[in-house]
Design brief:
By secondary structure, this protein is mainly α. Helices cover about 60% and strands about 0% of the residues. It has a two-stranded antiparallel ribbon. The longest helix is centred in the middle third of the chain and has 27 residues. The chain is globular.
Length: about 300
Amino acid sequence: MWLVYAVVTGTIAMGCWVIAHECGHNAFHPNRTVERWLGFSLHSLLLVPYYSWARSHAVHHAHCNHLEGGETHVPPRTNSLSGQATENLKQRLGQQLYGCISLITHLGLGWPLYLFLGATGGEDYGRPTSHFWNGAHFSRGERTLFPRSFRGKMVASNIGIILVLVLLGLAAVLSSPARVLCVYGLPYLVVNGWLVTYTWLQHTDLRIPHFSTEQWSWEKGALQTVDRPYGPLLNLLHHGIGSTHVCHHVNARIPHYNAWRGRELLKRAFPDLVRYDPTPIHKALWRIATRCGAVHQSPVDKAYYYEQAKGI
């Protein structure tokens, strides 16, 4: 019953994550103070460093599908050490076992690894990067993800999380750690799983190209996202975040309740540029987990793809 509770509560709470995400884009409310406090409160309750995330997420939107300057779900290249290690692991484990491990690490550990160490971040930002501290050990790349001037907002983000952790600790003392784990911890893991599922499926698939600096432009990168069929219930609970994502990358200031109309207008104007994959979510997730490791450069268009699919 606790697991059922976790799935239901975590799935509903993901909608709060999406609202905070809209606040980070200045797409939720015309009053910036209301928007700022709402986003900060919701994300802090979900243990997300709001201002730090908003900064890295803005970088993601500004450099979508850019192998050097991108942020989140940036794949390694086959000629890099991490890319070679990934491909060797795929071959040694086999497709099925590699896919299972990939699902567990992405959905279970992917979000904290990104926040603490910058996993799947762009090449130019170096390794590691952290959403909680931007000292010398976390600013070794050619570009700085969190400049020194950002430290005040980073500290504010950390304070929000610390306050929530203190409240959880008090709740554990007044009741029990096991109850806090069940009531808060299990839904928290479900929220993280949904978050990675959405972002992974939005920016990853066999025919989605990634670009180096020579080929990349903002327009090309923004259009290399994909809308998927999540169904009416999830689209209601999560405000259509996975089914209107192409429109969201074209203009992140469009609020979720207008994103459906924006998507239709975009499809009407540019029918060949709006990606949509009708594959059921569980099948698409398994395909990506088993077949998407490192990217190869295509001799045809010089972009990078996960597999040298026929016709690329």
